[in-house]
Amino acid sequence: MRTRRKIASLGLTAAATAGLVLGTAPQSHASAAPYCDNYNPYCMHFYYNSGLSGSFTAFVGFDHYTLDGYKFLRDGAGKGQYVKNNAASASNLSDYDLNVYFNSNLSGACDSIPPYGTTNTGPNDRLVNTYNENASFGYGRYNGNCYKF
Questions:
Q1: Which of 15, 72, 76, 108 is the most exposed place for a label (fewest CB within 10 A)?
Q2: What's the pTM value of the predicted model, to 2 decimals?
Q3: What whole-number distance in Å separates Cα of residue 86 and Cα of residue 70?
Q4: How much is the CA Rg of the chain, to the nearest whole Å?
């Protein structure tokens, strides 16, 4: 009887510990769509080509800790390609600074796009630090080390 209780107790402890570890993982609050909703205060576009051209995907919602699995949705060059590490330019359609990061989990080199700004004001009309190396994005974050458009 005691052995059963100990095994059951260990099983519950392991399940609780796994739940705590998994529960602390960053959660994404964004989704992808062909266009931005009119009512969403957080919206941005990633474009496959420089100069805001080619296929694009709209992301709505606050932060996105990884771009794994998302594809370019609109017609044009790059449609169907993965967004992660393939975006050349971007536009920010929100009231807040947008930071695009080289790594997942909002880390690494970054580019900062001001409210309602685009990458068309930078060199070659494209992302600078995250050109074809973009893995996450977030709004209103510290951007001291980011390239600023």
A1: 15
A2: 0.79
A3: 11
A4: 19
